[in-house]
């Protein structure tokens, strides 16, 4: 099998006859993983067409008829809540001549109509009618020409879809990651978690450079030094992860968790801890609104988010206080959503603070994201040289121990990357 | 004028344009201390997402009061931010000035901005509608609010190491 169809080979690594699974060892992966276009095409088929892919949060389609555009790998889909309240994920393509039936990013509708020849579809994707059906004859079977619908399952209102009807149920795929999702959602502070908005940007990098990042705590004090310096002393101490008893653990199926702030694993615990100074103004605002002290403490604690990053293979992370969703655009282009979460029906002051915290770090002009984007692009640029050199993911093997659900390493260990790449290897070998 | 929006005949569009051009030059030269000095203490520098105008309760690309503006500039200047050391080079033009009105001490001005950035030899183009709330002070014009609404602000942007 050829992994490199380009006529020129730039180094000694000649990949023809190399199987994808041979490019991944436990402690290292090979450069083509970041830059081989043929390998990327195989990933879209072997991984993104056979995984549970995160498409939206339920709060983004709150009512019957609510929809939002999303992606499964490179395929555009519509996530829509139908008249029965069920979520459908439909490939955004008319069954007639392929035009997208919707280009509105988000909204509410009673049906989808193709703009080209007027084929009309229901919210469940069924073909309702076509103009001048007589010319299709009596055998025209509308029931066989609905929009392509994907298998859909949800966990904690996170909606996942798959193109594969044969893979395991979502809850089995998530496995031990489920309990971390449960913990993460406690930042609703007693309210349902709701999407408040998002930052979106693209980076000229392979999608796996992002996949590696969310449980890579090793980079944080280096890349995000300027963010940490912008915090007050107390918050700075909170973000000095390596002073604490954090860890990173392989949760199986490519998933991993990095616990950076152990005291914030369970937001319902330690409610008697002193309120950090930067949350004091919010606490007082909540007291002034009439919340009793236990509620104030619960909401304030939830406002800061969870103390861990959970990476779910292949395309979504639950990171401190937001979702990070990746979309492979091309072998060297990846789109990212940083989805801001808040408390549905919760106090406006708390949601405002969550939004301000999100803007502080995330997005195209955050104090964190531009530096992440710079180093990710630098990885992609660096792989132009020394194609025979491996990418090392061996950090922390020396003192890795068995954890609750899988190998557990020092917080700065590359245990999460090893988890992802072992799953990559398993799926690419199929 | 007592709160009634009218175009003040004494407002000179050329003077406003010259002020905005000076700011554009300051931003292209990354002279951020000079940029901070163009502001009053009470307003916001906002790069919003989408068409909404309830900036306080929506997620923006940035929503900076005086404190955040100062922190943002410190981040640019301290040399620890890899995306700012060095930042992308920019060349911008500002044009299509339209005076929206003058109320009390405030002057509302709309204009168009085109920014070309260069990083790694790769050039990207961004366009934004700018809305200024300017105030006349004893030491000249100052910015109270500035909203830079980028084209495709609710779509996929790229990381920025400069200001609009």
TrEMBL record, chain A:
Cofactor: Fe cation
Matching InterPro entries: Rieske_2Fe-2S, Rieske_2Fe-2S_sf, Ring_hydroxy_dOase_asu_C_dom, Rng_hydr_dOase-A
MF terms in GO: 2 iron, 2 sulfur cluster binding; dioxygenase activity; iron ion binding
Gene3D superfamilies on file: Naphthalene 1,2-dioxygenase Alpha Subunit, Chain A, domain 1, Rieske [2Fe-2S] iron-sulphur domain
All residue ranges annotated as the Rieske domain in the record: 52-161
Pfam families in UniProt: Rieske, Ring_hydroxyl_A
Keywords noted in UniProt: 2Fe-2S, Dioxygenase, Iron, Iron-sulfur, Metal-binding, Oxidoreductase
Region Disordered, annotated ranges: 1-23
Record carries keyword Oxidoreductase: yes
PANTHER family xref list: CHOLINE MONOOXYGENASE, CHLOROPLASTIC (PTHR43756:SF5)
Official protein name in the record: Aromatic ring-hydroxylating dioxygenase subunit alpha
Organism: Azospirillum lipoferum
Biological classification of the source: Bacteria, Pseudomonadati, Pseudomonadota, Alphaproteobacteria, Rhodospirillales
From TrEMBL, chain B:
Entry keywords, A to Z: Dioxygenase, Oxidoreductase
GO biological process terms held by the UniProt record: 3-phenylpropionate catabolic process
One Gene Ontology MF term: dioxygenase activity
Pfam families the UniProt entry points to: Ring_hydroxyl_B
Keyword check for Oxidoreductase: yes
Keyword Oxidoreductase: yes
SUPFAM superfamilies cross-referenced by the UniProt entry: NTF2-like
InterPro entries: NTF2-like_dom_sf, Rng_hydr_dOase-bsu
Family that this chain belongs to: Belongs to the bacterial ring-hydroxylating dioxygenase beta subunit family.
Full protein name: Aromatic-ring-hydroxylating dioxygenase subunit beta
Source species taxonomy: Bacteria, Pseudomonadati, Pseudomonadota, Alphaproteobacteria, Rhodospirillales
